[in-house]
Amino acid sequence: MDVINLTDAVPFTTKDGSEIRELLAYRNSGIRNQSLAEARLQPGGATAPHFHPQAEEIYYLLEGRGRMQIEAEVCEVGPGDAIAIPPGLRHQITAIGPETLRFLCCCAPAYENDDTIMVDNWP
Predict the structure, then answer these.
(1) Which residues have C-beta within 8 Å of that of residue 98, sequence separation ≥ 6?
(2) What value does the mean pLDDT take over residues 39-67?
(3) Within a domain: residue 29?
(4) Does any domain span residue 94?
(5) In what order do the strands lie in the sheet with 117-118?
(6) Apex CA 110: angle with CA 99 and CA 70, to 5°?
(7) pTM exceeding the 0.85 threshold for the entire prediction
(8) Does residue 2 belong to any structural domain of this protein?
(9) How would residue 3 be classed by pLDDT, with cut points 50, 70 and 90?
(10) Number of compact structural domains in the chain
(11) Bridge partner residues of 36 (DSSP)
(12) pLDDT above 90 covers what percent of the chain?
């Protein structure tokens, strides 16, 4: 049985600039086809615009407020919101409130820096 507590997950910065703590993935468990991580953005912080050719993602917001952009669509998001990000779509999330934006990020297949393509001059 693989049980990983958030306090035991070592934080690192992803290619898009967010701080994540990978909870479950092939790197630390029997999981093979997806990954689950907690991401954090400080107030005013944002991920760099990017897309994933292979991975689909789900963001699930735990704390804070954000502005989510997927291609030309923009909406404000907050705790309890789940966001579907299909593969190949440019996206960015920005922390817009006074507190840290915390969210879970599920990726299938598992998150890889090599599957993160940075986007210049967007939006």
Answers:
(1) 43
(2) 97
(3) yes
(4) yes
(5) 73-77, 66-70, 91-95, 50-51, 117-118
(6) 55
(7) yes
(8) no
(9) very high
(10) 1
(11) 24, 106
(12) 94
